[in-house]
Predict the 3D structure of the following.
Amino acid sequence: MTQQNKAVVRAVLDAALAKGRKALTAPEAKLIADAYAVPVPAEALAECADEAVALADRIGFPVALKIVSPQIVHKTDAGGVRTGLATAAAVRAAFTSIVSNARAYDPAAEIKGVQVQQMVPAGTEVLVGTVTDPTFGKVVAFGIGGVLVEVVKDITFRLAPASRDDALSMLDSIRAAEILRGVRGGAAVDRTALAELIVGVSRLAADFPEIAEIDLNPVFASADGVMAADVRILLDPQPVKPRRTYSRAEILTSMRRLMEPRSVAVIGASNEAGKIGNSVMRNLVDGGFPGEIHPVNPRADDILGRKAYKSVMDVPGEPDVAVFAIPAKFVAAALEETGRKGIPNAVLIPSGFAETGEQALQEEIVAIAERYGVRILGPNIYGYYSTWQDLCATFCTPYDVKGGVALTSQSGGIGMAILGFARTTKTGVSAIVGLGNKSDLDEDDLLTWFGEDPHTECIAMHLEDLKDGRAFVDAARATVPKKPVVVLKAGRTGAGARAAGSHTGALAGDDAVYDDILRQAGVIRAPGLNDMLEYARSLPVLPAPKGDNVVVITGAGGSGVLLSDAIVDNGLSLMEIPADLDAAFKAFIPPFGAAGNPIDITGGEPPSTYEATIRLGLEDPRIHALVLGYWHTIVTPPMVFAELTARVVAEFRERGIEKPVVASLAGDVEVEEACQYLFERGVVAYPYTTEKPVEVLGAKYRWARAAGVLG
């Protein structure tokens, strides 16, 4: 955009804000639309009926008339809109009626006149708009428009400013995308013009922070181009307080000392069993942390056989982390000493801050930490685990199974569920981290670290909100090409749509924006806690797929049907089996079985049939993933199936042929042991469910597409 374009917008906004207004009039909105090349109809302002008739004659019949008043934002609700006026008499009557309706709707409203507008050419009615989201900032929206927009709710969101590729992806992301391509002989809309409109509107919102919402509804899209019939712009004069940010290098430096410390001080360490300070000390000592552990307690000489210090200032050397296990009211003073000592990380376990209404106390500790350059984890957390360092800095039960899964939670209760799940499933973890109030360190800091951590292969995060959605998106985009990121966003249904002054704002419920923008960042969103945990332990087990062709091999026809349904539900593609491959499968299955896809080998077949068909599925390069449906029989017992499957998969892996293989095992309790056996050997297997293994495979495919590794 040229400087002159921006100058026009700047002048319009400044004039409106100087009068304390929070909405622009239609003529003002047209000036801004023209400045940013937003196609709008020819129009002019009439202050009397005669003037309206003259303008209509100049613009050309038919015309639309709309009330112009700074106080009346929703013109239709006020009876302030008339369309399709084809004669001078109709314009005159409409003018009188509109003004009368507006005065009855809001007697105090300032009536500036009536806007006479060219009728817009016919086309598909869509909506283009922007909102200022509390998490992600400026966000652009696109969807089906018109009077039923809030009923249909077919809309998608992207960060603003949007790129041309973002805009084109939005056209394909709504449920009614096929309408834009032309249906029942109708012409497709001009996708280039529509994408340019989305980009331009998103740039306008990003360029001017005081624009709270833009609402273009309806926009008429046709093969000949696009035109916005109505432009509504709402203002917010309150500037957003900038959040303190850190560079990637600064984040990695502080996170390295947090996650790989050589020395830890425990403020509030105790010899008394049942105290948090005692549990933290015991976990550090019993967990085998090889670095220095320095208890701090002014009333003790030694704790668990280690010299205790009166103050953190007395601790020798330069500790990397100070773990706080003292009441909230003492934290500020101890944090001041921590800062003066030069300790870069404070892990605040105590509660009693913003979560209990003590916002001022939390702001005080944040100010102290910023003054000294201390990064805060918490407060109100269970602590954290860094298993590859044998570090268990928490009052919860210890955990020491090393592996590639990093898990974080905003909630302590969810943290304990994560711990229990990891223990039950023998999931190897690289870290488990509590975030609590997120007064400072949050998901984007952890994601930046885990993205570079060689011990971490998959990151799964439970969160209730994001402090800085854009920072999280940036961190996710840097991480996803290297490893999957799974998010469980709590509060999916609680917030609903916020009260807003535009259709776009009303549709921008918290979850709708989260859903689209997390997907835009390549994040895998888990629908529930168990899903998040299962994705986390399963995704590192599965190799990346090299194509879309999925084949189902099953010993039970019923399972095959359910597995096929799950494949469709998860956006996967059942391979169309070519004739030669169909014949190859038929050679191994009985005449009453069924080739095609699913391949039903029937339940009475011996282990050799399972093995032969699995071998063929792995051997043929046209097949990219296998879904196995096992049925418990005497002929092929569960562990026999598990052992042969694991052996064949391992054999092909040694030959350099790796494909994702998932399995659903239906049977008696012996299938549980068989599933665990398979899981430990690279086959993601679940008992009693046809949905779960395919959901995991679907998650792997979503990551592969986002990471650009799908062949």
In short: The chain has five domains: 3-118, 124-235, 247-380, 399-540, 549-707. The first strand starts at residue 43 and ends at 46. Residues 494-500 have pLDDT under 50 and may be disordered. The chain has 24 helices and 30 strands.
